[in-house]
């Protein structure tokens, strides 16, 4: 059977391990989850005296895919055009006349499929959660390793004031910590069981209905829906949106690394295995294949969020099309997230840093990254506004002529020299003296990441 999301074709498909979510969403896995719900339903109903105990035992014994004729199921699906009924009929046949007569008692199709989907989401989320923690652990290592590694800070694509690479990683950590918290909370409303019948009123099960649902939930290690209505699709949509936000954060990391790998920057590199070929015609190429795939998968994840929100707006008590659409979107989102995070983990764990190139790039702006420090020191003597005007004029002169040195122009300017000595100016322009609290920010972020990984 093919998986729900189909087969992708990416740069790193053959070199990156599968995250394991694709296997969760094979047709066989989906069917078995539905059968597991049918078993839990029969057991719960037997405990409450609705279904004969021997019938529930028999249903439990046979409700495994290996006991069913799946060719028959597929053939009947082609005829009936129904996602669940052929599977139920095959379970009835295998269970026998007595037990088979109690299969699917008091439930409707979406009670089984949506509850089964909750099982799949829980399994997939466990993988997603671990991959996020793995990425945070790798980021913590990076932040500590580069806490004092000076590089240009860049705003609007231009040199700003210096930072350390660890500060850049700290922003990644902060994004991922919030993203982890969102998906951890957001998944919970998706992990709920409904067995309240076609319109969510327990009309088929009567007064025992809520107790049946509670016991089914306990058996499946899920929670019961407070309002067990098929109309409620916002929890799944919200979780997909939470995943999309995390995908956006991963995309930002990938584009930063991909940009840093450009020849003109040369500050970082994703791991490039021995024998990896970048181009069929240019043997020298070391292309950011992993980052390219992270960006592709990030875009896929973002694109699924509006579709998921669109599925919420359906009329009346249920819409099978909206439910089916959202289940397909959920599968695609989780598979894409698993693939993306697996690649990002590899990038972060093997990221190469080139501090000498970072320092050389910082020097390209001729110490002008210290203009803020000079302006503030000068402003203490003549006022900030006037200091800004003077330092701006000198900086523009240095940029336009290209031959004039910013430091020397400052030292030679009478307006500046009247307030600051040459040694003071040189110290203010020293990038190592103007990174603020960069090392502390990086190390604090690393500590927070490690706390999250440790579950604290």
UniProtKB/TrEMBL annotation:
Task: State the superkingdom.
Answer: Bacteria
Which SMART domains does the annotation name?
ADSL_C
Is Protein biosynthesis found in the keyword set?
no
- Recorded GO terms, molecular function? (S)-2-(5-amino-1-(5-phospho-D-ribosyl)imidazole-4-carboxamido) succinate lyase (fumarate-forming) activity; N6-(1,2-dicarboxyethyl)AMP AMP-lyase (fumarate-forming) activity
Q: Which residues form the Adenylosuccinate lyase C-terminal domain?
A: 366-446
Q: Give an example GO cellular component term for this record.
A: cytosol
Keywords for the protein's UniProt record, in alphabetical order: Lyase
- Keyword Lyase appears in the UniProt entry: yes
Spell out the InterPro entries in the cross-references. Answer: AdenyloSucc_lyase_C, Fumarase/histidase_N, Fumarate_lyase_CS, Fumarate_lyase_fam, Fumarate_lyase_N, L-Aspartase-like
* Gene Ontology BP annotations: 'de novo' AMP biosynthetic process
- Protein name as annotated: Adenylosuccinate lyase C-terminal domain-containing protein
Organism annotation: Microbacterium sediminis
Phylogenetic lineage: Bacteria, Bacillati, Actinomycetota, Actinomycetes, Micrococcales
């Amino acid at each position: 059977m093919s998986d729900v999301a189909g087969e992708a074709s990416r740069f790193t498909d053959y070199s990156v391990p599968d995250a394991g979510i694709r296997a969760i969403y094979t047709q066989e896995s989906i069917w078995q989850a539905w059968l597991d719900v049918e078993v839990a339903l029969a057991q719960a109903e037997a405990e409450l005296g609705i279904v004969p105990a021997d019938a529930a035992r028999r249903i439990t014994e046979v409700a495994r895919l290996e006991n069913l004729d799946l060719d028959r199921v597929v053939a009947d699906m082609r005829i009936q055009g129904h996602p669940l009924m052929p599977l139920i009929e095959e379970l009835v046949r295998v269970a026998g006349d007595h037990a088979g007569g109690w299969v699917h008692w008091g439930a409707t199709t979406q009670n089984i499929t949506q509850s089964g989907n909750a099982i799949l989401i829980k399994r997939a989320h466990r993988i997603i959660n671990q991959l996020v923690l793995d990425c945070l652990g790798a980021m913590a290592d990076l932040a500590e390793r580069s806490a004092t590694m000076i590089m240009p800070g860049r705003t609007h694509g231009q040199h700003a004031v210096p930072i350390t690479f660890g500060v850049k990683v700290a922003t990644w950590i902060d994004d991922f910590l919030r993203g982890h918290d969102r998906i951890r909370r957001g998944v919970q409303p998706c992990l709920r069981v409904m067995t309240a019948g076609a319109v969510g009123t327990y009309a088929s099960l009567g007064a025992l209905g809520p107790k049946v649902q509670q016991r089914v939930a306990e058996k499946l290690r899920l929670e019961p829906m407070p309002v067990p209505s098929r109309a409620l699709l916002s929890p799944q949509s919200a979780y997909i949106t939470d995943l999309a936000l995390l995908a956006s954060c991963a995309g930002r990391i990938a584009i930063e690394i991909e940009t840093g790998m450009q020849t003109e920057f040369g500050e970082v590199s994703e791991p490039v295995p021995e024998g990896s070929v970048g181009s069929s015609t240019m043997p020298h190429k070391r292309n950011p294949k992993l980052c390219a795939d992270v960006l592709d998968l990030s875009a896929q994840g973002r694109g699924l969020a509006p579709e998921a929100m669109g599925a919420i707006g359906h009329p009346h008590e249920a819409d099978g099309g909206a439910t089916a659409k959202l289940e397909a979107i959920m599968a695609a989102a989780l598979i894409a997230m698993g693939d993306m995070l697996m690649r990002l983990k590899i990038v972060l764990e093997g990221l190469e840093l080139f501090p000498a190139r970072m320092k050389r790039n910082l020097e390209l702006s001729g110490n002008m990254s210290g203009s803020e420090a000079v302006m503030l020191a000068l402003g203490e003597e003549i006022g900030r506004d006037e200091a800004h005007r003077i330092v701006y004029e000198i900086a523009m002169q240095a940029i336009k002529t290209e031959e004039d040195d910013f430091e020397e122009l400052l030292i030679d300017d009478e307006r500046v020299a009247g307030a600051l000595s040459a040694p003071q100016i040189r110290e203010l322009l020293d990038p190592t003296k103007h990174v603020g609290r960069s090392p502390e920010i990086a190390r604090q972020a690393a500590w927070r990441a490690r706390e999250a990984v440790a579950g604290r």
